[in-house]
Amino acid sequence: MKKACSDQVRSALDAQQPHWEETYLEEPDFFGQAPSFSAQKALERFKKEGKHSILELGAGQGRDTIFFAKNGLQVHALDYSENAVEAIKQKAQEVGLSQYVTAGHHDVRKPLPFDAESFDGCYSHMLYSMALTTQELEALFQEVRRILEPEGLNIYTVRHTGDAHYGKGNYRCEDIYEVKGFAVHFFSREKVGHLAKGYDLISLDEFEEGALPRKLFLVVLKKSRNCKN
Fold first, then answer.
1. Which of 44, 82, 141, 183 is positioned for an S-S bond with 131, CB 3.0–4.6 A?
2. What is the CATH number of the domain that holds 206?
3. pTM, two decimal places
4. How many domains does the chain have?
């Protein structure tokens, strides 16, 4: 049985923030410039269901943010790296999309700084696989549900337990392993279901990304009609 996260382990996970700050500072396009596969699939779903106002969590340096904006979505991007936030603002300005993009710094372990039903969609590419405990994820998923309009979409990706890095590197707690300085929370299908409280699970698909390759779930949740804020 995986151990719970102690205060000592949480301190180690807190150290991820400066690690990401340094990474983004040294590599302006750490994840590349092209939009991710998941962003392309998310855009299809957002367009199909008439969603226009999107919250992006863990936006990184903005490759998916800019892609959404270029395709007419209004995007509010959040990241806990100040360097990432500045990169997004600069890229939006350079391509003339500042009116479609708002970027800000936020730690998702804290409540989201928005009123209820502020967005009709939320997107995150591997944000939930960062150094977040299950308890923190439970709170975050309910925060996302709170800020979504009725039948709003929560589309996300996470690395899953079939990934080559699962069980490798330094074990932290639960299903979190640190590999080459990056802590990753790996998801099982059961965890996807557990975190979907208050949502309807629309789809759960697998895909691969990168040279390893990383193995991920692409999950589409819809805020349940029967669940009140």
1. 183
2. 3.40.50.150
3. 0.89
4. 1
Q: What angle do CA 160, 75, 38 make, to 5 degrees?
A: 30
Residue type, 158: V
Question: Residues 97, 98, 100, 105: what is their CA dihedral angle, to the nearest 10 degrees?
Answer: 130
**228 in a structural domain:** no
- pLDDT, one tens digit per residue, over 49-83 is 999 999 999 998 899 999 999 999 999 999 988 88
Please give the distance of CA 87 from its chain centroid, rounded to a whole number. 17
> What pLDDT sits at residue 31?
58
What is the Cα–Cα distance from 150 to 120, expressed in whole angstroms?
8
